[in-house]
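for the record, two folds in this file. i put them one after another cuz i was lazy. first one right below, seq on top, structure tokens after. the second one comes after a little note so u can tell where it starts
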Amino acid sequence: MTCRNNKLQNIYLAANSETTGKPLKRKDGSIRLIGGDSYNEGNLEIYHLGRWGAVCDHTWSDKEAGVVCKQLGFSESHRGVAKKSSHFGNSKRLYWLSKVICNGNEDKLVNCQLDRWGENNCSSAEAAGVICENTKMPSKIVKPVKLSRKKFIKSKDNMFVRLMGGRHSTEGRVEVSFNNKNWGTVCGNDWSILEANVVCKSLGFGYASDSFNTDIFGGQNVSSPLLSGTVCHGNETKLSECTHEQYGKVSCGTEKEYVAAVICTTTLPDLIFDIPELEHSLHLEDRMLYFLQCAMEENCLASEAYNVDRTNEDWPSETRRLLKFTAKTLNAGNADFRPHIPKHQWQWHACHMHFHSMEVFAKFDIYDLNGKKVAEGHKASFCLEDNQCKEGVKQKYACANYGDQGISVNCYDIYRYNIDCQWIDITEIDFGYYILKIKINPDFRVPEMDYHNNGASCSLIYSPSNAMVYDCKLERP
């Protein structure tokens, strides 16, 4: 049996565990932290009406964060530290709660003062986060040794760039100058792997393996900020080609000690989405909600499906229309593609009986011809594995039995159309012409050589009996 056949077997076994016809639901009010680099931090999500949702950061404070840590079972030595503005990444889910107010002695978040569930005007950048910080542990940080080696480039508009404060020349805080004399840091607000990639490429150091908003390499205590608001598309050859605020007039936000920093490398994966596989596998399927209970728990259906679940006693017999297709992705880089979180933090999903190693591995969106999103889907990393490899390459990663997950160089990860959530729920959209967009590694959580081949954009025709895509092209997510 192949690796992906093991995956299908797991889904088959999960489906057959539902023979009672009863929906598989977690306890309402359960919470979890996602997106952090360790088990004790992340954006907060709460489970309600069979669906995970985010919590808005309006009125969010350390009191509410403390209740979260208490509910998650952390000891009294851990204090809750509130984080706002989607500190651990933009929210990809609906917001269940806004304006949560706790007095601090509650055992559960739902015992605090809450607004009406689901009623808010929160954006994806307003997710509430928490760090359950151990106050009995030392927080000493050993800073890297500063070296005197410098490397900088000169662009056509006389902007110089260099890295400082690192252990070696390929890492450190980013500094800029327009005269090669007066150097200053770059503000870390809005700094991402895209901007870091441009810096590494322009200095001849390859690609960015990490981007930081930190003072670990030294901050304003050694150099004043000279550049802020830097935003790159990712394909620029130097930092001066990116958009930024006026040089010397900076707005660094509240955490002014944090500056932009990078670590560069010459080895990274590079995912390429397979368009021909998408084109010939795409089709329609009508499926009853009874067979979609696991998918509902993973938020893989449109919002109306959950309204049916709440209001219709005969909801298992209701039918959803799914646009299904296969997503085949090649790693054409020179390093394996691995999950961005360590193995001990993977989430076990009893419904599908396997571990998720990434919160979201792919996004699927449909837009009308005016650019308005009308339907969406997402693919949690049910598992990343080598389903097919080029000649001479041995398969390394397999999900069965808690195996290591990843995509080897010159191997494909293949999510076939008959796997849960490999679809878009289009039940509520009208027949007509649309744009289909596929996005792999959409939030750039795993560093890559190039992100401009991770996604696909296609014209979509949807008729009562058929769906077809054409004029597909590769693009950045």
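(here's the note) second protein begins now
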Amino acid sequence: MKQAHIFDQRRTGVLLHVTSLPSGNLGADAYRFIDFLQQAGASIWQMLPLGPTHDDRSPYQCLSAHAGNNQLICIDMIKSQHWADADALTDAKISTLMAHAHRQFETRADEVEKQAFAEFCHEQQYWLDDYVLFREIRHLNQETAWFDWPAPLRDREPEALEKVAEERETALAIRRFEQFLFFCQWHNLRFYANARGVKLFGDMPIFVAHDSADVWAAPGLFTLDEKGLPTKVAGVPPDYFSKTGQRWGNPLYDWQKHIDDNFNWWQQRLQTQLELFDLIRIDHFRGFEACWEIPAECDTAVDGTWVVAPGDMLFESLLSYFGELPLVAEDLGLITPEVTALREKYAMPGMKILQFAFGGDANNPYLPHQQCQKSVTYTGTHDNDTTLGWYEALDEHVKAHVHAYLGESSEPMPWLLIRTALSSVSELAVIPFQDLLSLDSKHRMNVPGTTEGNWRWQFSWDMVKGNVAARLKTMNELYGRH
């Protein structure tokens, strides 16, 4: 099967989530970062999921699989609109500010702009109506999870939902407008990136959060009891990251229901992501072949079991619907021949993590000589330590293996590993921005299995030394990457 056209040349990407920009939003820093990529000869910006997060800020447990995170909206860009009264948009609270902006838009925007808003609401209705209602009811219930709401709202009784819709009509309109602003700003950013030869590479978790608009709106598609509580939850068995595995807590899919509905839910989910991104990484791809099913009452992932999933039917349906699947498979962890066969059937490159390559023997699949062209090589991912932090923590035996394999180079870490990624046969090499900046463990994005202090890292432009872009550009030219 033909690969997505984005892999028609050797490329370099940089991994940086939007929240890690100095401003943490879609404003000037995002455009400046695209300029940096262009100057560095890199053509891919990879980031994490963009959805609205819970209080822990994890982009892998979002309140919606479709909506954009309102915290990413650039307020300065709203103020620059001709219909905006910048002096009135000063409230620090995002909800109040959005209410003011919506009122200004309603009274001062021209008919073309109002028509664009109306068309957005119509085109995105398949998720937008449920999402704004979910967020408003959640707000009215002190931000508690939907399965703890009063039963009529929890169970989506029509009269209860109609009552909220009537009483909170303006609040719901403001929430729709907020999403309109997010998508407008995003599409402007994507246009700017694409015009400069930079593709946007997103991330789509296989599972959705239990407390999300998606599960509340379609509980029958998940393994839930009559009160909306999961009977089985997702995770992974013990692995490199955790001796007890990872109990993610997401409800599992009732796959038969998805089959009966011709995977319509998945088609809609991917449709939204393809409007945002040129390329999408599917997190935990192996779960489409078989997923680790944990009884909900278990506190860890140790007592789970593998349960087969209909991944082949799903991707056949998606391929038929979209015609092309510009997807990368996150195929880390325990990967069976069946998982590899599924990935290869749909021409999805897998992932090769260089931090996983050393300390064993020559058969390690992450070593460069074991890699193949249809892959994406990373020094590390958002779940890894920075490469400098990783290297400094290695014992002497593993360090010796690193240098024996890579050659006794005088090039320091992390650039030695960056060079290894760029020189690999992989069609795409992705470098976390922390590695380009030679940052240590204090700048790590996430530590799997922990809940404190993650997802908060931000860089400052003074960290970006004058020669970083030129150094990367030289290496990209040397190794035939763009």
